[in-house]
Design a protein that fits this description.
Layout: E1 3-10, E2 15-23, E3 30-41, H1 54-59, E4 62-67, H2 74-77, H3 83-97, H4 104-137, H5 142-164, H6 167-177, H7 181-204, H8 209-226, H9 238-253, E5 258-262, H10 268-296, H11 301-328, E6 336-342, E7 349-360, H12 367-375, E8 391-402, H13 405-408, E9 414-422, E10 434-436, E11 449-451, E12 454-464, E13 467-478, E14 481-489
Antiparallel strand pairs: 1-2, 2-9, 3-8, 3-12, 4-9, 5-6, 6-7, 7-8, 10-11, 12-13, 13-14
Protein backbone atom coordinates (compact mmCIF):
# COMPACT_ATOMS: atom_id res chain seq x y z
CA UNK A 1 0.00 0.00 0.00
CA UNK A 2 1.36 3.41 -1.00
CA UNK A 3 1.82 6.23 1.48
CA UNK A 4 1.91 9.86 0.39
CA UNK A 5 3.07 12.91 2.32
CA UNK A 6 3.61 16.48 1.13
CA UNK A 7 5.07 19.64 2.62
CA UNK A 8 5.18 23.22 1.30
CA UNK A 9 7.66 25.76 2.63
CA UNK A 10 9.48 28.95 1.71
CA UNK A 11 12.92 28.26 0.27
CA UNK A 12 13.98 31.88 -0.24
CA UNK A 13 12.51 35.34 -0.71
CA UNK A 14 11.01 34.41 -4.08
CA UNK A 15 11.10 30.62 -4.07
CA UNK A 16 8.69 27.97 -2.77
CA UNK A 17 9.71 24.35 -2.26
CA UNK A 18 7.20 21.51 -2.46
CA UNK A 19 8.39 18.10 -1.24
CA UNK A 20 6.43 14.92 -1.86
CA UNK A 21 7.33 11.63 -0.21
CA UNK A 22 5.78 8.51 -1.74
CA UNK A 23 6.40 5.14 -0.11
CA UNK A 24 5.65 2.18 -2.38
CA UNK A 25 4.52 -1.30 -1.41
CA UNK A 26 6.81 -4.30 -1.30
CA UNK A 27 5.14 -5.92 -4.33
CA UNK A 28 4.82 -2.76 -6.42
CA UNK A 29 6.72 -2.66 -9.71
CA UNK A 30 5.76 0.77 -11.05
CA UNK A 31 4.78 4.18 -9.70
CA UNK A 32 2.72 6.77 -11.58
CA UNK A 33 1.44 10.06 -10.24
CA UNK A 34 0.35 13.45 -11.53
CA UNK A 35 0.42 16.89 -9.95
CA UNK A 36 -1.49 19.91 -11.27
CA UNK A 37 -0.51 23.25 -9.73
CA UNK A 38 -2.84 26.20 -10.36
CA UNK A 39 -1.66 29.76 -9.68
CA UNK A 40 -4.57 32.22 -9.34
CA UNK A 41 -2.94 35.54 -10.22
CA UNK A 42 -4.47 39.00 -9.69
CA UNK A 43 -4.91 40.89 -12.94
CA UNK A 44 -2.81 43.75 -11.51
CA UNK A 45 0.31 41.60 -11.81
CA UNK A 46 -0.06 41.62 -15.62
CA UNK A 47 0.80 37.94 -15.96
CA UNK A 48 -1.32 36.70 -18.87
CA UNK A 49 -0.92 34.82 -22.19
CA UNK A 50 0.16 38.05 -23.92
CA UNK A 51 3.02 38.84 -21.54
CA UNK A 52 4.07 35.45 -20.14
CA UNK A 53 4.79 32.04 -21.61
CA UNK A 54 5.53 28.55 -20.35
CA UNK A 55 9.17 28.83 -21.35
CA UNK A 56 9.48 31.78 -18.93
CA UNK A 57 8.28 29.58 -16.07
CA UNK A 58 10.66 26.79 -17.11
CA UNK A 59 13.71 29.02 -16.72
CA UNK A 60 13.33 29.17 -12.94
CA UNK A 61 11.77 25.76 -12.27
CA UNK A 62 13.88 23.14 -10.50
CA UNK A 63 12.89 19.48 -10.25
CA UNK A 64 14.72 16.83 -8.24
CA UNK A 65 13.83 13.20 -7.62
CA UNK A 66 15.69 11.11 -5.10
CA UNK A 67 15.35 8.08 -2.87
CA UNK A 68 14.51 8.22 0.82
CA UNK A 69 17.22 7.15 3.25
CA UNK A 70 16.01 4.51 5.75
CA UNK A 71 15.82 5.32 9.45
CA UNK A 72 17.77 3.04 11.79
CA UNK A 73 18.67 3.44 15.43
CA UNK A 74 22.30 4.13 16.28
CA UNK A 75 22.39 0.89 18.28
CA UNK A 76 21.20 -1.05 15.22
CA UNK A 77 24.03 0.39 13.11
CA UNK A 78 26.63 -0.95 15.54
CA UNK A 79 24.84 -4.28 16.17
CA UNK A 80 26.67 -7.57 15.34
CA UNK A 81 24.89 -7.85 12.00
CA UNK A 82 24.29 -4.13 11.51
CA UNK A 83 25.41 -1.67 8.87
CA UNK A 84 28.96 -1.35 10.27
CA UNK A 85 29.55 -5.10 10.11
CA UNK A 86 28.13 -5.26 6.58
CA UNK A 87 30.45 -2.45 5.51
CA UNK A 88 33.44 -4.24 7.03
CA UNK A 89 32.63 -7.45 5.13
CA UNK A 90 32.07 -5.51 1.91
CA UNK A 91 35.44 -3.79 2.20
CA UNK A 92 37.21 -7.11 2.77
CA UNK A 93 35.55 -8.60 -0.31
CA UNK A 94 36.40 -5.55 -2.42
CA UNK A 95 40.00 -5.57 -1.18
CA UNK A 96 40.36 -9.14 -2.43
CA UNK A 97 38.72 -8.32 -5.75
CA UNK A 98 41.02 -5.39 -6.38
CA UNK A 99 43.88 -7.88 -6.62
CA UNK A 100 42.14 -9.65 -9.52
CA UNK A 101 41.27 -8.58 -13.02
CA UNK A 102 37.81 -7.11 -12.42
CA UNK A 103 37.02 -3.77 -14.05
CA UNK A 104 38.30 -1.01 -11.70
CA UNK A 105 35.38 1.23 -12.69
CA UNK A 106 32.83 -1.31 -11.45
CA UNK A 107 34.80 -1.77 -8.24
CA UNK A 108 34.88 2.01 -7.78
CA UNK A 109 31.10 2.24 -7.99
CA UNK A 110 30.56 -0.61 -5.52
CA UNK A 111 33.15 0.75 -3.10
CA UNK A 112 31.89 4.34 -3.06
CA UNK A 113 28.26 3.23 -2.76
CA UNK A 114 29.08 1.10 0.29
CA UNK A 115 30.94 3.91 2.09
CA UNK A 116 28.40 6.60 1.19
CA UNK A 117 25.59 4.36 2.37
CA UNK A 118 27.12 4.10 5.83
CA UNK A 119 27.59 7.88 6.07
CA UNK A 120 23.99 8.54 5.06
CA UNK A 121 22.65 5.97 7.51
CA UNK A 122 24.61 7.55 10.33
CA UNK A 123 23.40 11.06 9.51
CA UNK A 124 19.74 9.98 9.34
CA UNK A 125 19.97 7.90 12.51
CA UNK A 126 21.60 10.71 14.49
CA UNK A 127 19.13 13.29 13.19
CA UNK A 128 16.14 11.11 14.12
CA UNK A 129 17.61 10.39 17.57
CA UNK A 130 18.09 14.10 18.28
CA UNK A 131 14.57 14.86 17.05
CA UNK A 132 13.11 12.18 19.33
CA UNK A 133 15.10 13.44 22.31
CA UNK A 134 13.93 17.02 21.76
CA UNK A 135 10.30 15.91 21.74
CA UNK A 136 10.75 14.27 25.13
CA UNK A 137 13.00 16.94 26.65
CA UNK A 138 10.24 19.14 28.09
CA UNK A 139 8.82 16.33 30.21
CA UNK A 140 12.23 15.21 31.53
CA UNK A 141 14.14 16.41 34.57
CA UNK A 142 17.66 17.77 34.14
CA UNK A 143 19.12 14.53 35.50
CA UNK A 144 17.08 12.42 33.08
CA UNK A 145 17.95 14.71 30.20
CA UNK A 146 21.65 14.57 31.10
CA UNK A 147 21.56 10.76 31.11
CA UNK A 148 19.70 10.65 27.77
CA UNK A 149 22.21 12.99 26.10
CA UNK A 150 25.11 10.93 27.42
CA UNK A 151 23.51 7.73 26.09
CA UNK A 152 22.72 9.29 22.71
CA UNK A 153 26.19 10.61 21.98
CA UNK A 154 27.90 7.56 23.43
CA UNK A 155 26.00 5.45 20.89
CA UNK A 156 26.90 7.91 18.15
CA UNK A 157 30.57 7.80 19.18
CA UNK A 158 30.58 3.99 18.98
CA UNK A 159 29.30 4.15 15.40
CA UNK A 160 31.80 6.86 14.41
CA UNK A 161 34.71 4.99 15.97
CA UNK A 162 33.62 1.76 14.30
CA UNK A 163 33.54 3.51 10.94
CA UNK A 164 36.94 5.14 11.45
CA UNK A 165 38.47 1.82 12.48
CA UNK A 166 37.84 0.64 8.90
CA UNK A 167 40.26 3.19 7.44
CA UNK A 168 43.01 0.64 6.67
CA UNK A 169 40.57 -1.68 4.87
CA UNK A 170 39.22 1.28 2.88
CA UNK A 171 42.70 2.51 1.95
CA UNK A 172 43.61 -0.91 0.56
CA UNK A 173 40.64 -0.58 -1.79
CA UNK A 174 41.37 3.03 -2.71
CA UNK A 175 44.92 2.19 -3.84
CA UNK A 176 43.46 0.45 -6.88
CA UNK A 177 40.25 2.33 -7.57
CA UNK A 178 41.72 5.82 -6.98
CA UNK A 179 39.04 7.22 -4.70
CA UNK A 180 38.88 9.51 -1.67
CA UNK A 181 35.42 8.39 -0.62
CA UNK A 182 36.38 7.32 2.90
CA UNK A 183 37.88 10.68 3.89
CA UNK A 184 34.99 12.61 2.34
CA UNK A 185 32.40 10.44 4.08
CA UNK A 186 34.28 10.70 7.37
CA UNK A 187 34.26 14.48 7.04
CA UNK A 188 30.53 14.32 6.23
CA UNK A 189 29.94 12.25 9.40
CA UNK A 190 31.98 14.65 11.54
CA UNK A 191 30.18 17.78 10.31
CA UNK A 192 26.79 16.05 10.59
CA UNK A 193 27.63 15.29 14.22
CA UNK A 194 28.55 18.92 14.90
CA UNK A 195 25.32 20.14 13.28
CA UNK A 196 23.25 17.72 15.38
CA UNK A 197 24.98 18.84 18.60
CA UNK A 198 24.46 22.51 17.69
CA UNK A 199 20.78 21.89 17.03
CA UNK A 200 20.43 20.19 20.39
CA UNK A 201 22.21 23.06 22.13
CA UNK A 202 19.97 25.71 20.56
CA UNK A 203 16.70 23.91 21.23
CA UNK A 204 17.52 23.04 24.85
CA UNK A 205 18.22 26.73 25.57
CA UNK A 206 20.99 26.18 28.07
CA UNK A 207 19.79 22.98 29.73
CA UNK A 208 22.64 20.47 30.21
CA UNK A 209 24.94 22.88 28.38
CA UNK A 210 28.12 21.39 29.88
CA UNK A 211 27.58 17.90 28.53
CA UNK A 212 26.52 19.21 25.11
CA UNK A 213 29.56 21.49 24.94
CA UNK A 214 31.83 18.57 25.77
CA UNK A 215 30.61 16.45 22.86
CA UNK A 216 30.74 19.42 20.47
CA UNK A 217 34.32 20.31 21.49
CA UNK A 218 35.42 16.69 21.16
CA UNK A 219 34.30 16.52 17.54
CA UNK A 220 35.73 19.97 16.78
CA UNK A 221 39.17 18.89 18.00
CA UNK A 222 38.93 15.81 15.78
CA UNK A 223 38.16 17.95 12.73
CA UNK A 224 41.01 20.33 13.57
CA UNK A 225 43.42 17.40 13.50
CA UNK A 226 42.03 15.65 10.40
CA UNK A 227 40.17 18.34 8.42
CA UNK A 228 41.42 21.80 9.41
CA UNK A 229 39.74 23.25 6.32
CA UNK A 230 36.35 22.75 7.99
CA UNK A 231 37.18 25.22 10.77
CA UNK A 232 36.45 28.92 10.13
CA UNK A 233 39.34 30.89 11.65
CA UNK A 234 37.67 34.21 10.90
CA UNK A 235 34.44 35.58 9.50
CA UNK A 236 36.07 35.70 6.06
CA UNK A 237 36.58 31.91 6.21
CA UNK A 238 32.90 31.14 6.58
CA UNK A 239 32.16 31.31 2.87
CA UNK A 240 34.99 28.86 2.13
CA UNK A 241 33.86 26.46 4.88
CA UNK A 242 30.27 26.57 3.65
CA UNK A 243 31.36 25.90 0.07
CA UNK A 244 33.40 22.92 1.21
CA UNK A 245 30.52 21.50 3.26
CA UNK A 246 28.09 21.86 0.35
CA UNK A 247 30.53 20.09 -1.98
CA UNK A 248 31.03 17.19 0.45
CA UNK A 249 27.29 16.95 1.12
CA UNK A 250 26.50 16.88 -2.60
CA UNK A 251 29.10 14.16 -3.19
CA UNK A 252 27.79 11.88 -0.44
CA UNK A 253 24.09 12.43 -1.14
CA UNK A 254 24.55 11.79 -4.87
CA UNK A 255 23.92 8.14 -4.00
CA UNK A 256 20.26 9.01 -3.39
CA UNK A 257 19.63 11.41 -6.28
CA UNK A 258 18.58 10.55 -9.83
CA UNK A 259 19.81 12.43 -12.87
CA UNK A 260 17.01 14.46 -14.48
CA UNK A 261 17.85 15.28 -18.10
CA UNK A 262 15.79 16.92 -20.81
CA UNK A 263 14.60 14.69 -23.63
CA UNK A 264 15.09 16.24 -27.07
CA UNK A 265 12.63 16.09 -29.93
CA UNK A 266 8.85 15.94 -30.23
CA UNK A 267 6.60 13.10 -29.16
CA UNK A 268 5.20 10.58 -31.61
CA UNK A 269 1.74 12.12 -31.17
CA UNK A 270 3.06 15.59 -32.08
CA UNK A 271 4.75 14.26 -35.23
CA UNK A 272 1.51 12.45 -36.15
CA UNK A 273 -0.52 15.66 -35.76
CA UNK A 274 1.99 17.62 -37.84
CA UNK A 275 1.78 14.93 -40.51
CA UNK A 276 -2.02 14.95 -40.48
CA UNK A 277 -2.11 18.74 -40.93
CA UNK A 278 0.41 18.51 -43.79
CA UNK A 279 -1.57 15.69 -45.43
CA UNK A 280 -4.86 17.64 -45.39
CA UNK A 281 -3.22 20.78 -46.79
CA UNK A 282 -1.48 18.76 -49.51
CA UNK A 283 -4.75 17.02 -50.33
CA UNK A 284 -6.37 20.42 -50.90
CA UNK A 285 -3.56 21.54 -53.24
CA UNK A 286 -3.65 18.25 -55.17
CA UNK A 287 -7.43 18.43 -55.68
CA UNK A 288 -7.14 21.99 -57.00
CA UNK A 289 -4.38 20.90 -59.40
CA UNK A 290 -6.36 17.91 -60.70
CA UNK A 291 -9.61 19.88 -61.18
CA UNK A 292 -7.98 22.77 -63.00
CA UNK A 293 -5.77 20.49 -65.10
CA UNK A 294 -8.75 18.42 -66.23
CA UNK A 295 -10.66 21.57 -67.20
CA UNK A 296 -7.94 23.81 -68.73
CA UNK A 297 -5.20 21.36 -69.64
CA UNK A 298 -1.72 20.75 -68.23
CA UNK A 299 -0.14 23.86 -69.75
CA UNK A 300 -2.36 26.90 -69.37
CA UNK A 301 -2.32 30.27 -67.71
CA UNK A 302 -5.43 29.43 -65.66
CA UNK A 303 -3.69 26.36 -64.20
CA UNK A 304 -0.63 28.47 -63.38
CA UNK A 305 -2.67 30.96 -61.29
CA UNK A 306 -4.70 28.15 -59.69
CA UNK A 307 -1.55 26.39 -58.54
CA UNK A 308 -0.17 29.60 -57.01
CA UNK A 309 -3.39 30.20 -55.06
CA UNK A 310 -3.57 26.53 -54.05
CA UNK A 311 -0.09 26.60 -52.56
CA UNK A 312 -0.78 29.89 -50.75
CA UNK A 313 -3.86 28.43 -49.09
CA UNK A 314 -2.10 25.08 -48.54
CA UNK A 315 0.41 26.66 -46.17
CA UNK A 316 -2.30 28.58 -44.33
CA UNK A 317 -4.45 25.46 -43.99
CA UNK A 318 -1.50 23.52 -42.61
CA UNK A 319 -0.67 26.16 -39.97
CA UNK A 320 -4.28 26.69 -38.87
CA UNK A 321 -5.05 22.98 -38.75
CA UNK A 322 -1.84 22.21 -36.85
CA UNK A 323 -2.63 24.89 -34.25
CA UNK A 324 -6.17 23.52 -33.80
CA UNK A 325 -4.95 19.94 -33.47
CA UNK A 326 -2.28 20.91 -30.94
CA UNK A 327 -4.89 22.80 -28.91
CA UNK A 328 -7.29 19.87 -29.08
CA UNK A 329 -4.67 17.34 -27.96
CA UNK A 330 -3.01 19.73 -25.52
CA UNK A 331 -3.53 17.40 -22.58
CA UNK A 332 -1.32 14.72 -24.17
CA UNK A 333 1.39 17.01 -25.55
CA UNK A 334 3.96 18.06 -22.90
CA UNK A 335 5.97 21.26 -23.25
CA UNK A 336 9.01 19.62 -21.68
CA UNK A 337 9.94 15.96 -21.36
CA UNK A 338 12.48 14.83 -18.80
CA UNK A 339 14.36 11.55 -18.51
CA UNK A 340 14.97 10.20 -15.02
CA UNK A 341 18.18 8.19 -14.89
CA UNK A 342 20.20 6.40 -12.25
CA UNK A 343 23.21 8.44 -11.17
CA UNK A 344 26.53 7.18 -12.44
CA UNK A 345 25.07 4.93 -15.12
CA UNK A 346 25.27 5.41 -18.86
CA UNK A 347 21.83 5.56 -20.40
CA UNK A 348 19.96 3.59 -17.71
CA UNK A 349 16.56 5.27 -17.75
CA UNK A 350 14.23 4.35 -14.90
CA UNK A 351 11.40 6.77 -15.57
CA UNK A 352 10.15 9.92 -17.24
CA UNK A 353 8.53 13.21 -16.29
CA UNK A 354 6.29 15.22 -18.63
CA UNK A 355 5.58 18.90 -17.89
CA UNK A 356 2.99 21.27 -19.32
CA UNK A 357 2.68 25.04 -18.80
CA UNK A 358 -0.45 26.93 -19.89
CA UNK A 359 -3.12 29.47 -19.02
CA UNK A 360 -6.66 28.25 -18.42
CA UNK A 361 -10.03 29.88 -18.88
CA UNK A 362 -12.57 29.71 -16.06
CA UNK A 363 -14.40 26.90 -17.90
CA UNK A 364 -11.25 24.76 -18.07
CA UNK A 365 -10.60 24.78 -14.32
CA UNK A 366 -11.76 21.54 -12.64
CA UNK A 367 -14.91 22.14 -10.53
CA UNK A 368 -13.23 20.95 -7.31
CA UNK A 369 -10.34 23.37 -7.78
CA UNK A 370 -12.67 26.25 -8.68
CA UNK A 371 -14.75 25.58 -5.56
CA UNK A 372 -11.61 25.47 -3.42
CA UNK A 373 -10.57 28.91 -4.70
CA UNK A 374 -14.08 30.33 -4.38
CA UNK A 375 -14.38 29.25 -0.75
CA UNK A 376 -11.04 30.93 0.05
CA UNK A 377 -12.26 34.45 -0.66
CA UNK A 378 -11.95 36.68 2.39
CA UNK A 379 -15.31 37.70 3.89
CA UNK A 380 -16.91 40.19 3.94
CA UNK A 381 -15.20 41.41 0.77
CA UNK A 382 -15.82 38.29 -1.31
CA UNK A 383 -18.73 39.97 -3.11
CA UNK A 384 -16.33 42.58 -4.47
CA UNK A 385 -14.59 39.96 -6.63
CA UNK A 386 -17.79 38.80 -8.34
CA UNK A 387 -17.43 39.31 -12.06
CA UNK A 388 -13.71 39.98 -11.83
CA UNK A 389 -11.60 37.21 -13.27
CA UNK A 390 -8.12 36.13 -12.28
CA UNK A 391 -5.46 34.78 -14.57
CA UNK A 392 -5.00 31.07 -13.91
CA UNK A 393 -1.62 29.62 -14.80
CA UNK A 394 -1.29 25.83 -14.60
CA UNK A 395 1.82 23.72 -14.23
CA UNK A 396 1.12 20.03 -14.81
CA UNK A 397 3.60 17.27 -14.07
CA UNK A 398 3.15 13.54 -14.68
CA UNK A 399 5.79 11.10 -13.46
CA UNK A 400 6.24 7.41 -14.28
CA UNK A 401 8.92 5.45 -12.41
CA UNK A 402 10.07 1.85 -12.50
CA UNK A 403 10.22 0.21 -9.07
CA UNK A 404 12.83 -2.51 -8.65
CA UNK A 405 15.37 -3.59 -6.09
CA UNK A 406 18.16 -2.35 -8.36
CA UNK A 407 16.62 1.14 -8.31
CA UNK A 408 15.69 1.25 -4.64
CA UNK A 409 19.07 -0.13 -3.50
CA UNK A 410 19.26 0.14 0.31
CA UNK A 411 16.42 2.65 0.80
CA UNK A 412 13.10 2.27 2.57
CA UNK A 413 11.18 2.05 -0.74
CA UNK A 414 10.50 5.77 -0.75
CA UNK A 415 10.74 8.30 -3.56
CA UNK A 416 11.15 12.00 -2.75
CA UNK A 417 10.01 14.50 -5.40
CA UNK A 418 11.27 18.06 -4.83
CA UNK A 419 9.95 20.97 -6.91
CA UNK A 420 11.04 24.58 -6.46
CA UNK A 421 8.90 27.37 -7.91
CA UNK A 422 10.51 30.75 -8.38
CA UNK A 423 7.86 33.48 -8.45
CA UNK A 424 10.14 36.42 -9.24
CA UNK A 425 8.62 36.84 -12.72
CA UNK A 426 5.17 37.18 -11.17
CA UNK A 427 6.33 40.22 -9.20
CA UNK A 428 8.11 42.22 -11.86
CA UNK A 429 5.10 44.41 -12.77
CA UNK A 430 4.27 45.59 -9.26
CA UNK A 431 4.49 49.35 -9.68
CA UNK A 432 5.81 50.46 -6.27
CA UNK A 433 7.02 48.95 -3.04
CA UNK A 434 5.16 51.12 -0.50
CA UNK A 435 1.78 52.81 -0.47
CA UNK A 436 0.46 55.48 1.88
CA UNK A 437 -2.24 54.61 4.37
CA UNK A 438 -5.37 56.78 4.67
CA UNK A 439 -4.80 59.69 7.08
CA UNK A 440 -7.11 58.52 9.84
CA UNK A 441 -5.33 60.43 12.57
CA UNK A 442 -4.70 64.15 12.08
CA UNK A 443 -2.05 64.11 14.82
CA UNK A 444 0.26 61.95 12.72
CA UNK A 445 3.31 64.03 11.69
CA UNK A 446 3.41 62.37 8.28
CA UNK A 447 1.29 59.82 6.38
CA UNK A 448 2.02 56.24 7.37
CA UNK A 449 3.32 53.91 4.67
CA UNK A 450 3.07 50.13 4.33
CA UNK A 451 4.21 47.57 1.77
CA UNK A 452 1.85 47.14 -1.15
CA UNK A 453 0.88 43.45 -1.17
CA UNK A 454 -1.06 41.04 -3.37
CA UNK A 455 -2.43 37.57 -2.75
CA UNK A 456 -1.58 34.67 -5.07
CA UNK A 457 -3.49 31.47 -4.45
CA UNK A 458 -1.77 28.19 -5.25
CA UNK A 459 -4.06 25.17 -5.57
CA UNK A 460 -2.62 21.71 -6.07
CA UNK A 461 -4.35 18.57 -7.27
CA UNK A 462 -2.34 15.40 -6.62
CA UNK A 463 -3.31 12.08 -8.19
CA UNK A 464 -1.58 8.84 -7.22
CA UNK A 465 -3.02 5.84 -9.07
CA UNK A 466 -6.79 6.38 -8.69
CA UNK A 467 -6.60 8.39 -5.48
CA UNK A 468 -6.71 12.16 -5.46
CA UNK A 469 -6.28 14.97 -2.95
CA UNK A 470 -6.40 18.77 -3.05
CA UNK A 471 -4.67 21.54 -1.15
CA UNK A 472 -4.67 25.33 -1.22
CA UNK A 473 -2.05 27.87 -0.13
CA UNK A 474 -2.21 31.67 -0.01
CA UNK A 475 0.99 33.49 -0.92
CA UNK A 476 1.27 37.12 0.15
CA UNK A 477 3.73 38.93 -2.16
CA UNK A 478 5.13 42.40 -2.61
CA UNK A 479 7.75 43.93 -4.85
CA UNK A 480 10.56 42.70 -2.59
CA UNK A 481 9.41 39.05 -2.63
CA UNK A 482 7.21 36.61 -0.74
CA UNK A 483 6.08 37.99 2.62
CA UNK A 484 4.18 34.95 3.91
CA UNK A 485 2.95 31.51 2.94
CA UNK A 486 -0.25 30.20 4.54
CA UNK A 487 -1.66 26.72 3.98
CA UNK A 488 -5.43 27.16 3.92
CA UNK A 489 -6.48 23.62 2.98
CA UNK A 490 -4.15 20.74 3.84
CA UNK A 491 -4.04 17.67 1.56
CA UNK A 492 -5.85 14.58 2.76
CA UNK A 493 -3.67 11.49 3.36
CA UNK A 494 -3.40 9.11 0.41
Amino acid sequence: MQKFKESVKLQSGTQIEVTQRITVGSDQRALAYAVDTYFFLPNELLINPDTYAGRDFQKHLKTYIRLGCPARTLEALAAPNGALEKLRRTLLVLADETQGKENPQKLLGRYESAVKRMALLYQRSLSMSVKTLLKRAESMTDAELHASIEALFTSAKIVRSGFRDLRLAAESCEERVESHAFDLCNEFISISTAKAVSRLYERLEGRCANVVDRFWLEEKLYRESRYPGTIARSSADRERVLYRWRAVKKYVESLLYFDVRRRDGETLLAHSLYGAAAAVSMLFATIVAFVWQSRYGSLSLNLFFAMILAYIFKDRIKEVLRAKLLRRFREWLPDRRLRIMRTGTAGTEIGRCDETFDFLSSKQIPPEVARLRRDAKEPPFSFMTNGRTEQVFRYRKTVDLAVSEAVLQFTERQFVDITRFNLSDFLRNIDNLYSSLPELDLDEPEPARAPKTYHIYMAREITVDNRRTLELCRICVSLDGIRSLEQMVAPMPL
